[in-house]
Amino acid sequence: MAADEIKNVMVYWADGEINSFIKVWVSAYISLFYCYFVGKILAGGITRLACFLPVVCLFLLLPLQLHSMHLGGITAFFLAWLTNFKLLMFAFNTGPLANPSISLPRFLAVACLPIKLIPQNPRKNKTEEAGNGQMSIKNYAIKCLLMALIVKIYSFEDYIHPRIIMVIYGFHIYFALEIMLAIAAAMARGLLGAELEPQFNEPYVSTSLQDFWGRRWNLMVTRILRPTVYVPVLKWSTGIMGREWAPLPAVMSTFIVSGLIHELIFFYLGRVKPTWEITCFFLLHGLCLNAEIAVKKVVNGRWQLPRVVGTVLTVGFVMVTGFWLFFPQLLRCGGLERGLAELSAVGAFAKDVVRAVGLPVNSSV
Question: Is residue 23 a part of any domain in this protein?
Answer without folding.
Answer: yes
